[in-house]
Write a structure and sequence with these properties.
CATH topology of the largest domain in chain A: Rossmann fold
Number of domains of chain A: 2
Structural class of chain A: alpha/beta
Number of strands of chain A: 14
Largest sheet of chain B: none
Strand order of the largest sheet of chain A: 6-7-8-3-9-10
Number of domains of chain B: 1
Strand content of chain A: 25-35%
Structural class of chain B: mainly alpha
CATH class of the largest domain in chain A: Alpha Beta
CATH architecture of the largest domain in chain A: 3-Layer(aba) Sandwich
Shape of chain B: globular
Distance between the termini of chain A: 37 Å
Shape of chain A: elongated
Bound molecules: adenosine-5'-triphosphate, magnesium ion
Distance between the termini of chain B: 24 Å
Number of strands of chain B: 0
Oligomer: heterodimer
Order of helices and strands of chain A: EEEHEEHEHHHEHEHEEHEHEEHEH
Radius of gyration of chain B: 19 Å
Radius of gyration of chain A: 25 Å
Largest interface: A-B, 35 and 27 residues
CATH superfamily of the largest domain in chain A: P-loop containing nucleotide triphosphate hydrolases
Strand content of chain B: under 5%
Largest sheet of chain A: 6 strands, mixed
Helix content of chain B: over 70%
Order of helices and strands of chain B: HHHHHHHHHHHHH
Chain lengths: ~325, ~250
């Protein structure tokens, strides 16, 4: 649905996006993740045809965003970061105008437009403000009107820039379940700097930092690749021999010890052990038992996505600073 | 052209839900009402034998009072068109829908043109008033309105252009007012320059000269060509400006 090839965007000498390539297949719900200023909105603006790329190619549903602009845009429902609306209009007026602009219901005419507008009003649960002037709406409601706008005409691709920014927890939950429902029939690309947001809705993520792509894949993949695989062991009894044995074991990269009522170890495995954490655990337990220590607990240590995220974006930051 | 119709409708609607259009329209009508009153009073004082022109001709060709308000009305009518969309960010939503830039520009321009025509409509009453007490040559009235339409169409196109070239409404209004006043001043050259090509050029672009002709029922196509140029060139620049916003 989306093909991005070596996309770069410069604002003057500032590289907001550099050499980013990724693909999104039909029906996927993909998260576009990165810290503030990473270049998320800039990338999405290029995808939605609002900002021209400095170099690189973008294809939406097989149409080049430059050469076949109208065809490409016809596939997209875009919700900009600022959720811009015409404040002098009422909610239904705004949506009717936008539906006409997008050619919704052509050639069905008025009836088809009215039907589509009430469908998205229903979908975004804004029926209670349908006749209110937009200037009188709260931020959360404006956000949902902008979301309803993007849904008009059920475009094959939805590009949503931080759709749940400014919503209260209940509304966030509603928006998330809405986005999950959309997946499958529609392709969805949502940006966020909040991890739970992405974890709750997306099957895949693209992580970007300082304009460059730092990771891409399913959440599980990224967690596995980026996080060192580790095992947590809790030992008691005579542990000194066990510690030495573990330090020197062939599957172990390194190991940190925390004293307490029991000896707690976090053992980092060598990266080739990724696919056999269970086997490695068995080996280490056997090794400890052989030295006479008691193993009270042994469990794989799953890194949180936060760890992965901060590792990805921090290491990139350090690389930048250390660069020439 | 795609997209012009919904944009046209929305712009027109937003004129009449904001107080600005009403303020502009009312002040314009008050001014023209005064203008008309002064003319009629003057003609009445002179008596019919002294007047070398009837009220209709005087209204359209006799004084600058007819189009002086346009120098301010046109910039105010057009200043919002693009500047406001850029300020509020709605331009991002607008330009990411499958519409042609030409459709966006024409939709907005036609809306302001219609608002302009509507603003003139009540003045037809003056003509009806004159018709009750004397003869009105309706073709001459038509020519007068055609002249005002053509001149205004050019000014509005200039205003549309400056609204796209600046980021604030105020700057848009000031720039277009300056451009329009500049055009107007060129016309004054026809009175002060010595004979020669410079003077001819000034006479050619002079609104005064144009309305003088049109108010006598003389429709000079060269004048209309000039007015059409003043519509097409600024609108072309507007389209290019809007397209350039997404430049790499
Ligand atoms: N119109 C612009 N002109 C100049 N620089 C810009 C412009 N828009 C964005 N930038 C810069 O480009 C970089 C990326 O901005 P962008 O808005 O894409 O970040 P983001 O990932 O969306 O951040 P956030 O999470 O805060 O929304 C920033 O350094 C920003 O200052
Ligand atoms: Mg952003």
């Amino acid at each position: 649905m989306i093909e991005v090839e070596k996309l770069s965007k410069y604002y003057g000498s500032l590289a907001a996006v550099r050499d980013v390539s990724f693909r999104v297949g039909s029906g996927q719900v993909v998260g576009f993740l990165g810290p503030n200023g990473a270049g998320k909105s800039t990338t999405l603006r290029v995808l939605a045809g609002f900002v021209g790329a400095s170099s690189g190619r973008v294809r939406i549903g097989g149409h080049d965003i430059e050469d076949e602009r109208l065809e490409a845009l016809g596939n997209i429902g875009y919700m900009p970061e600022t959720a811009p609306l015409y404040v002098e209009m009422r909610v239904t007026e705004q949506l009717r105008f936008r539906a006409e602009l997008k050619g919704v219901g052509r050639p069905g005419g008025r009836k088809a437009i009215a039907k589509e507008v009430s469908r998205v009003i229903e979908r975004a649960t804004i029926a209670d403000v349908a006749d209110v002037p937009i200037s009188e709406l709260s931020k959360g409601y404006r956000q949902r009107v902008a979301l309803a706008d993007a849904l008009l005409g059920s475009p094959p691709l939805l590009i949503l820039d931080e759709p749940s920014a400014g919503l209260d927890p209940n509304q966030i939950r509603e928006v998330r379940s809405l986005i999950r429902d959309l997946g499958g029939e529609q392709t969805v690309l949502i940006s966020s700097h909040i991890l739970p947001e992405i974890e709750a809705t997306c099957s895949e993520v693209v992580v970007i930092d300082q304009g460059t792509l730092v990771a891409m894949g399913t959440i599980a993949d990224i967690r596995r690749e980026q996080a060192p695989v580790a095992i947590r062991l809790v030992l008691s009894g005579v542990v000194e021999a066990a510690l030495v044995a573990i330090e020197e074991h062939e599957v172990v990269e390194n190991c940190t010890v925390a004293e307490g009522p029991h000896t707690q170890l976090v053992v980092q495995l060598k990266s080739e052990m990724v696919n056999d954490v269970g086997g490695a655990t068995a080996k280490l337990v056997a090794c400890c038992v052989a030295t006479g220590a008691l193993v009270r607990e042994a469990s794989p240590e799953a890194p949180s996505l936060e760890d992965v995220f901060s590792r990805l974006t921090r290491s990139e930051g350090e690389r930048m600073e250390g660069g020439p | 052209m795609r997209g012009w119709w919904p944009i046209f409708k929305r712009e027109l609607l937003s004129y009449y839900v904001t107080p600005l259009a009403w303020v502009v329209m009312t002040s314009f009508l008050v001014l023209q009402g005064m203008h008309f009153y002064v003319l009629v009073a003057q003609l009445a004082a002179q008596g019919s034998q002294g007047a070398d022109a009837g009220p209709v001709q005087s209204f359209f060709g006799g004084t600058v009072l007819l189009y002086l308000p346009l120098l301010f009305v046109c910039p105010v009518l057009t200043m919002r068109l693009f500047a406001e969309e850029r300020r509020s960010g709605t331009i991002e939503a607008l330009l990411t829908t499958p519409v042609h830039v030409l459709g966006v520009v024409l939709g907005k321009y036609l809306a302001v043109l219609v608002a302009y025509v509507v603003m003139w409509l009540p003045t037809v009453l003056y003509m009806a008033l004159v018709a009750r007490h004397g003869d009105v040559q309706w073709p001459v009235v038509g020519a007068g309105y055609l002249g005002m339409f053509a001149v205004g169409a050019g000014y509005l196109a200039v205003g549309t252009m400056t609204s796209a070239l600046t980021r604030s409404q105020l700057a848009a209004a000031i720039t277009s007012a300056m451009a329009i006043i500049g055009l107007f001043m060129l016309g004054i050259g026809a009175f002060i320059l010595p004979d020669g090509p410079g003077r001819e050029l000034c006479a050619y672009v002079s609104v005064w000269g144009q309305m003088n002709d049109f108010s006598r029922g003389i429709i000079d196509t060269r004048r209309l060509v000039l007015d059409a140029t003043l519509v097409v060139v600024p609108l072309f620049i507007t389209v290019r400006a809007v397209e350039s916003w997404r430049a790499p």
